[in-house]
Amino acid sequence: MNATTLLQEPMNASPSRPAPRRVRATAFAPACVGNVGVGFDILGHSMAGAGDRAEVRRIDEPVVRIAAIHGITHPLPLDAQHNTAGAALLSLRKALGLRHGFELELRKGIALGSGMAGSAASCVAALVAANALLEKPLPREALYGFAMDGEAVASGGRHGDNVGPQLVGGLALSTHDRVLRIPVPADWHCALVHPHFVLETRKARAALAGHYRLGEFVAQSANLALLLAGCFRGDAALVRDGLKDVLVEPRRAPLVPNFARVKQAALDYRAMGASISGGGPSVFGWFEHRAEAAAASVAMRAAFAEAGLDSDVFVAPIDGPAAELVDDEVAA
Q1: Which residue in 63, 68, 169, 305 is deepest, having the highest Cβ count within 10 Å?
Q2: Does 147 lie in the same domain as 121?
């Protein structure tokens, strides 16, 4: 041992050891309000109160295997390439050239076909858990493309309005290659009401087929700009002027029972705006204060009850949480 070594490593120092490697991780991804009315396929915000969990184990086989899916009333594919979470992990493996594989177990906490981004939550939770098992975990934003690959299995296209907010939290503008979190005043709340009625994403998207007028695109672009400006400035008046979906909502409204009454119930309690969450049938409203959102949620639930539908109610800040690790296990 030379003098240089003595200076760098004291005689009583223990030999350096590699950091313990995780072999199992569990992540939780929250529900999401997709589109936020005026931002079709590019705008959404996470929503505390419901979400999916994914437990991922690192395995030696170079495959992605789905062991089980809990919390569902209708079967979901266990074949990885036909499951949003499985497809996201397949995309991750391929892009990184991983020699190992993953075994996945899902616990669904978001109802299927609810418009609360359940399919997106599953693939985001799976990615966050799997990322923790990598020797060099990727930055959160680097998971975005893989999440869109997974979401495409459910919706038929790569779009980030759900997976983007679930990855970074809060209100997010999610384009084809980037996610930008938008500032929102802490006091602003969302009331989200989910009727016990299933509306499949593909059916909701099929309702949008047809011709559109140029004026509709111009009006929708102006409304999106007003909403974003209002969020950056904390100006509720701008949001009130902008949160008016003239492009998608009119075509999907007939798919949501008693939608007009539910929306009006939100507006009656001073909502800055209200519309369909994602592909529906859930309906959301934005409010300046939690008390208004809570009161409106009761009236919105009552409006769904008029159509013979029971419903679940969620009231939470618009600036919601991101997906997070909730448990892990390291190799012995």
Answers
A1: 169
A2: yes
Q: Which residues are paired to 54 by β-bridges?
A: 27, 106
275 phi and psi angles, rounded to 5 deg: -165, -170
Q: What is the pLDDT of residues 200-241, one digit of tens each?
A: 877 888 999 999 999 999 999 999 999 999 999 999 999 999
| Total number of residues shown for the chain | 332
Give a yes or no: residue 13 inside a domain.
no
Give 136-168 pLDDT, tens digit per residue. 999 999 999 999 999 999 887 899 999 999 999
Q: Which two tokens stand for residue 320?
A: 């919601």
How far is 254 from 234, CA to CA, in rounded Å? Answer: 33
Please compute the mean of the pLDDT values over residues 73-102 and round it to a whole number.
95
Is the model's pLDDT at 10 over the cut of 60? no
What distance in Å separates the CA atoms of residue 182 and residue 201, rounded to the nearest whole number?
26
Same domain? For 92 and 114 the reply is yes
Both structure tokens of 146:
């893989």
pLDDT score of 106 more than 50: yes
Give the CATH number of the domain where residue 188 resides.
3.30.70.890
Q: Where are the beta strands (DSSP E) in 22-100?
A: 22-34, 43-59, 64-70
Domain that holds residue 54: 22-181
In total, how many domains does the chain have?
2
Do 50 and 108 lie in one domain? The reply is yes
CA distances from 262 to 21, 187, 250, 300 (A): 50, 23, 14, 5
Closest CA to 165 of 294, 274, 290, 317: 317
